[in-house]
Every structure is written in C-alpha cells, then in structure tokens.
Amino acid sequence: MSTSTPSVFSKIIAREIPAAIVAEDDRVIAIEDIEPKAPVHVLVIPKTEEYANVSELAAGDPDLLAHVVATAQRIADERADGQFRLVFNTGEAAGQTVFHVHAHVLAGELQEGTLA
Ligand code: 5GP
C-alpha cells in the first residue's frame, strides 16, 4: 500500500535526511537503526514505497523479499559471524511504527525484553 506522504525511509533513500548507510544497491538500502536494540541493529529497506509490510511484499514481489533476506545474511556475515535475527514488525499492535516495509537485522545480545 503506498501513501501520499513519503515515509522517513523514502526521505533517507532520497538523501533528504541523513542516515548511516551500511549497504545499498538498486533495490534496497541498509542503514543503522537510530535507536539500536542490539550490538548489530541494521534496517534493510526496499526502495519502493509500494509495500507497507512484509505480507504485502511477499504477495507482491517475492523476489524482492528474497533479496532483503540475502542482504541481511550478507550484513550478518560481515558483522556477526553469519548468525542473526530477522524481525518484521507487522501492524501497529505488533510495534510497527514506519509503514514502509523494512527488516530489522539483529545480532549480538538484545536489550532485555525487546525484539526490536
Ligand atoms: P518499526 O517500529 O516500524 O518496526 O521500526 C522502525 C525503526 O526505524 C525503529 O527501530 C526506529 O528506531 C527506526 N527509525 C525511525 N526513524 C529513523 C530515522 O530517521 N533514522 C534511522 N536510522 N532509523 C529510524
């Protein structure tokens, strides 16, 4: 679902607001989460605004979802011996605050009581 207002992530992709960029290609950008919940806490974000959450992405573009997962694996290989958690908060009640699909890549010890 696209929205009329650009998401905070679209503004980062457009370089309208700054972010610590970890990786980027034509389909995704990976940035450091501004409020990290673990020693490695990177967000992998499809550049398209078309999908609000992972269910929409899986239904609409499964290849792009696979690319998000492969990007997460590559980041974990580089920064955390290849082992990681992948979290997609889906819906407000599940803690989603930005309705532009993104994966949290988490590695190392998480802050107590949180998944992302
Ligand atoms: P959600 O709660 O939607 O699953 O995750 C949104 C994530 O985006 C949160 O972990 C939050 O810290 C992160 N975030 C929100 N605004 C910004 C920002 O401007 N820059 C960065 N790097 N991360 C952000």
UniProtKB/TrEMBL annotation:
Active site per UniProt: H102
Pfam families named in the record: HIT (PF01230)
GO molecular function, one term: catalytic activity
Domain HIT: 8-115
Signal peptide: none
Residue numbers covered by motif Histidine triad motif: 100-104
InterPro entries, alphabetized: Histidine_triad_HIT, HIT-like, HIT-like_sf
Origin superkingdom: Bacteria
PANTHER family linked to this entry: HISTIDINE TRIAD HIT PROTEIN
Listed name of the protein: Histidine triad (HIT) family protein
Species for this entry: Curtobacterium pusillum
